[in-house]
Amino acid sequence: MAANNEEILSHVEALGGGYVWEPEIFAVTLMKVPVTDTQVAGLQDLRGVQQIALNASNLSFAAVEAIARIPALASLVLSGSTFSTEQVAKLQLICPEVLLVAAAA
Cα(80)–Cα(105) distance, rounded to whole angstroms? Predict the structure, then answer.
């Protein structure tokens, strides 16, 4: 599991994102990077991650939904989202906490 996580996190860093992987918290952020579905496809294979923060401006709902289904994911933070109220409600049924934030300037 850790080796796979390490490969995925290396990809996150290569995209310009970051992460915290400590005993108390495991979080991944790609808030400042307008990533695509292809670039985030591997995130759904992360295990043990508690929070993922994404710039969703170029992401499809299907890609974000797949990420929301990561086992034990507690929080999904999305900036730049253009998802409908119904789509956000569906994400909230999958992931305990879904936060929509304004895109960074």
Answer: 11
50 CB neighbour count, 10 Å cutoff: 15
Residue 16 has pLDDT above 60, yes or no: yes
Judge whether 21 and 9 are in contact, CB under 8 Å: yes
Please list, in sequence order, all residues whose beta carbon lies within 8 angstroms of the beta carbon of residue 44, skipping any fewer than 6 positions away. Answer: 66, 67, 69, 70
- Per-residue pLDDT reduced to its tens digit, 81-105: 999 999 999 999 999 999 999 876 5
CA quadruple 85, 91, 97, 101: dihedral sign: negative
The backbone region for 38, taken as left when phi is positive above 0, alpha when psi lies in -120 to 50, beta otherwise, is alpha
| Structure-block tokens of residue 50 | 């508690």
User: Total domain count for the chain?
Assistant: 1
Write out the residue range of the structural domain in which residue 75 sits: 2-101
Q: How far is CA 19 from the centre of its chain?
A: 11
